[in-house]
Amino acid sequence: MAKPLLLHATASLPLRNFHKKTLVTEDTLSCSYSASPSLYAGCRSNRTPAWKAARSVERLGFRDARIGRGRYEHDGCGRERVYSAQAALQEKGGALQEEPRSAAAETLDLLEWPRVCRAVASFAATSVGKEQLQVLEIPATREASEALLELTTAGVELISLLGGPFELGALSTQVVKDCVLRTRKGMVVSGVEALSVALLLQTARNVRRQVFNTAQEFQDRGSVLQPLLDMVDPIVTHPDLEKGIWRVIDEDGSVKDSASPELRKARTQERSIEQRLRELFNKLTRDKSGSDSQSQEIVQLDGRMCLVVASDNRSNVPGLLLRSGSGASAYIEPAGAVPLNNKLNEARAEVAKAEYNVLLRLTDQLRPYMDDIQFCLNTIVRLDVVMARARYSTWLGATKPTFIDTDSQNLVRLQLKRARHPLLLQQHREALREAKAKLKTKSKNLGRLKTRPGMMVGALEEIRAAVAEAEAEVAELEENAPVPIDVRVIGETKVVAITGPNTGGKTATIKTVGLAALMAKSGLFVLAIEPVVLPWFDVVLADIGDEQSLSQSLSTFSGHLHRIKRIKGASTGNSLVLLDEVGAGTDPTEGAALGMALLESFAESGKGGSFLTMATTHHGELKTLKYSDPRFENASVEFSEEKLRPTYKLLWGIPGRSNALNIAERLDIPKDILVVARSLYGVASAQLSEVT
Q1: Where are the alpha helices (DSSP H) in 111-171?
Q2: pTM of the prediction?
């Protein structure tokens, strides 16, 4: 086997998806370190792939390149991937090329799915549960999604029946996970690891009892709780094993004196010698003059008790100079303390040996039960993940979705009533909470100042103004909560064209639908009111935002086309496709024609088509598709002509106007410019925007 070389990370680098602490061998290069001669010196003679990879990196000018081969590493989101040095060193035009991401993976970022994952993870109680929830599982089958939803439903029901939080306690799941791995490698557990195992067994037993007692108390809801009962039923907690741990391990993870006679004797000896040393040092400091004693301090240095004295008084303290400190200090071990310090170190060695023997025996007791401990850990983490989904769904006030068959002839193909974007709602709630906290603080300050005698009127008025400002901020936030939308796709509809003004909520609408589909697939409830009906989409694909890339010489228009090409390659007749500003970024006439052709292609079934496509657009020509093809439908975001601002409501079946000139008027564009613009707009364009 090749000898491993442990290297230390250097500066951050231009290459992505590599990590700072890895293992390097003569045959395997998996590191994030300087590609200098020292990096590949060990494999230079054989000209191995690792050596060639390192030389290639250096030739390309990346002296801190991060490359790896044949090793699993975490990508920071809880997933493991294998990175290839050869793949990382693909050359084109003298630069390293990134492997293009899949359209489905890119969609998750476009819909801000990682933010939803982090929001759900914040409701988890264990560190391992939080880590797993950083990337929510998106099942590949409808049956798996329905199983996750049943578990979430059971979690929501349990929270409701308990009438309060479902607590898992202060579990150190990562410590238990490490303990299992170390024990299976033949290593001895630490006191903290043993303590964490005991707490896990105790918590698992209490959780199992709580779930079963709740089901017994509310027997009419037992069927809803059954998924949780099935989850915790196989747990075996071994109470005798737990008692054995508590017998030798204290609450802080240290080994108890009573764990063995040898340990008790060794610690008694250690404490006795420490006491004698303290008495000796106290006597030494008392015997010195008052000025000297003030400058002396008793400390431990490398396990030996010594005095810190001023350098000019060093000769007054006979003994060994252990260290000269910064400034005018010296660390002196008095001659009389040398034999006692030696004995103390010997006693400590005996304590460490006795502790090790206790932990060795405890490890031997734990080892036969490692499979049960591992199962217990996995179950508790799974339960934590389920309950985090349930807490998040409850916090949102969300509704359990129902999947429909994509091949059925149901009248309703998708229905979301009063749906809202979960991240917008979360952002609004956080802003409202902060505003209320600010108002509360300022109100308290005003109350205190009112009772203070001699307070100047001007200062009080200033505080009152601040309170009034905070009240206005709270009132404005309460009035401007995220506006819910209704989405109801029925009959033969396969494509919905959404029109209306900029900043009116078109993009937020398709993001809301996309997140609803992903949340349902992942076992989360959907932020809408009953009934929530939607298909189980095999994949959600989106083209949202500006795909301009200067490094690849792509314009905004070309960037969109590259992404849509990948979407076409990944979509099927069971997919959800979301297109933002389809056909934009080029000549309006050509863009409209291309947009119409694209939407007609996505209206087809099978490969390259979709079950449902929702597209936002400003092209009036796309609104007319509804009148020649029953597979198309129109929707628009409402615009208030009176207030000259969008209402963010979605109007179904009605095409919208862009209202660019009205918005320009609201933004105080000079009137003479608006007059000319309206005259240039023309009768024909106006009639096109008025199509109904």
Answers
A1: 113-121, 127-133, 142-162
A2: 0.76
